[in-house]
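Ligand: zinc ion. Inputs:
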Amino acid sequence: MTDTAATPNVIRRADYAPPAFLIDTVDLEFDLVPERTIVKNTMRVRRNPAAAHTRDLELMGEQLEFVSAAIDAKPYANVRIHEHGITIEDVPDSFELTLTGACDPAANTTLSGLYVSSGNFFTQCEAEGFRRITWFLDRPDVMATYTVTLRADKAAYPVLLSNGNLVAEGDLSDGRHFAKWEDPFRKPSYLFALVAGKLVALEERIKTGSGTDKLLQVWVEPHDLDKTRHAMDSLIHSIRWDEARFGLELDLDRFMIVAVSDFNMGAMENKGLNIFNTKYVLANPETATDTDFANIEAVVGHEYFHNWTGNRVTCRDWFQLSLKEGLTVFRDQEFSAAMSGGDENAAARATKRIEDVRVLRQMQFAEDAGPMAHPVRPESYVEINNFYTMTVYEKGAEVVRMYQTLFGRDGFRKGMDLYFQRHDGQAVTCDDFRAAMADANGRDLAQYERWYSQAGTPRVRVTTRYDEAQKRYSVTLAQDYGNASPAARETQKGPLLIPFAIGLIGTDGTDLPLCLEGESAPNGTTRVLEFTEAQQTFTFVDVPAKPLPSLLRNFSAPVIVEYDYGNDELAFLLAHDSDAFNRWEAGQRLATRELLALAARAAAGESLEVNDALVDAFGRVLNDESLSPSFRELALMLPSETYLAEQMAVSDPAAVHAARQFVRKQLGTVLKADWLATFEKHRTPGAYEPTPEAAGHRGLKNLALSYLSELDDPADAVRLATAQYDAANNMTDRAAALSALLNASAATGGDFASRALADFYTRFEREPLVIDKWFALQATQRGSAKRPVIETVRALMQHPAFNLKNPNRARSLIFSFCAANPAQFHAADGSGYAFWADQVLALDAINPQVAARLARNLELWRRFTPQLREPMRAALEKVAAGVKSRDVREIVEKALA
Ligand code: TRP
Ligand code: ZN
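Predicted complex:
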């Protein structure tokens, strides 16, 4: 075996081979005891007729203690236990294999496999956690039906859950009891789950489209039952939406969601038994913000939608991960847009689109520019857990969305129908999905494959020409990948099929009817150009006067558009574009241009001054009552420091921070009267409602408060924020008020936040998700030379409520500081990096998956100013020298390579 931690094995897509054996049925019996759980696993195994003959059966296993083996119920001695699992030597063609083993859930801090959280048992099997429960071929193309028997102490574990239908339950001797579950659907092992413990459920019975009765349950710890209503409503909405939009019905009689407070990611789509991070289940007005409510709806939808896109049709291998994740993110985005009224209302729809594109640009574009750049369908990996990425999820969703942009909703639906008709019950590839879209729409999509195989963010350069005499307007598009990272460059083969949506705006601000050369009549005001060559010119005819182009409407492809707009043109688009996304985009371009110019001046030690055009444009948006509050909030939010730093030739977080703070203060000061009026106007008195409209008002009001908290004279902000904090009947307003108080303190050197901060802690001491916010607010606060935030963070690490083993808590303090407070994290003395290295190594010993996420925080180190680059590299090398896990090693080795 050469596969040691020091020379990690690379798994390659090109090496895919079908499994040598198939496993048709799995019968699991669990005797659940925290320190030593016994698992008896009886499988029907046969040689795979589609694979080369092998004598021995190799099963994966990790952290398992071997107890016994039997073939066809007779003890079998020809087994070898090794570091990767077990080899059953010289097996027949078809047989029943029984393996009994033991594991230690109480000691499992990785939160992969079977573990204990708050005294209850949970599992997490995606991607390769099942091998930590029993020996198995835990790859997604091995699909079986499962029968699961759980036995445990009845007082300690009154609730026993697994996938599918409950078929038997009863008492045993010694105060124990059992439950037996059967899942009628074949599934890969990564969708297996069990839960056991002291839990209670909110229940609802509904009838689905075909008139079938369904039992829905949201299981939580007893004290959280008052925070389950929103998750249940979100589940019901998800079920209804998937029926209406895609004709997909819930296929089980019972659908369960279980919340757990120790969880590595957001949630997991186990068949019929979704397991969720509490953060994406629990909400009531006092504890959850509007953003939390929206996230819960999105994640509940996401996991529910996996039941078809992921579970009924699953992935052949992990390189195909985006087959389920990109598609399911696209589905949850469409669902959220519909829930915010977006099916009828273009502006509401644009709001969701803007939020999604912000995440894509800030996070996925950055990933694509660094050493972890990979295609939506990666070619290789060392640790699959490192490939649950922004590229696979968010860019993958864009790649799915573009089919809909090309073929329309109906064409997309035809493709989905054909996909299920062909592949229900199978484990398939991204190519199979593309083929269904192509065949259903009578199109050749060979070129489209490059969206799956090429890494890097495409750049589209646009030039335009108006021919006054001929009344022709030509738009020339040129595509390349700019200066992509080496990791991305090696995947790039040729031009992409880019659906490029465009509109032309006349001098009066309205859209012009569009008629391309060769067409007999104008048709519509937005056109999706199919841009397929390295360079291509599209000519519009009968254009009465030189128009202003509205490019890549609704962000029709995940690309960077370069076009030389003037500031006045951007201001015009911000005021007039009928495409709400591009209105927002124009404001962002205007602000980005100004902020980058100021950052350059700040870096050079020159004085700063804000362009009046920006202040005027923002002022007009702020006071434009025809725009929805949520749109105005988004339009008035400056691009983040992280995004801005990435746009610089050499990232300089301190200069970006100085520039952005300067602009925030100017906007706050010059528009003070408008912010004050906006604050008053958008109060939401009365009972809290988590509707998009009410959330829009709160969002705009709290943005006003945050701008006011930048002023030299903090009196207004402090007065309003203090009153809002004390009177708040919801977490959105309370947290925003506390944040404004912290900001006013940092801006002026005063202390306006201590009382509220202390009150917040005592008020919510028993609500871990709220205490997470308490840590995060402090970790992301603005600091000053006198009060560096790292000191606060170090002190908070000693707080009795801090616990590195709980991923939510680690994220709330450590990740918030390292990833969401760039100016403080990138302190010139390198203190942030040293802290980061210590925490990566500490987490590495506890939970490699979470450690590897934190490890990624320095991957763009080569793009930073020389003064920062050196301490960053030193920190990376420190981690590389001390790392134990394959997860973290892959990340730091790629970063240093
Ligand atoms: N499949 C899950 C989702 O996207 C995410 C997931 C993958 C996950 N691996 C995990 C969740 C490990 C928790 C732990 O919905
Ligand atoms: Zn998913």
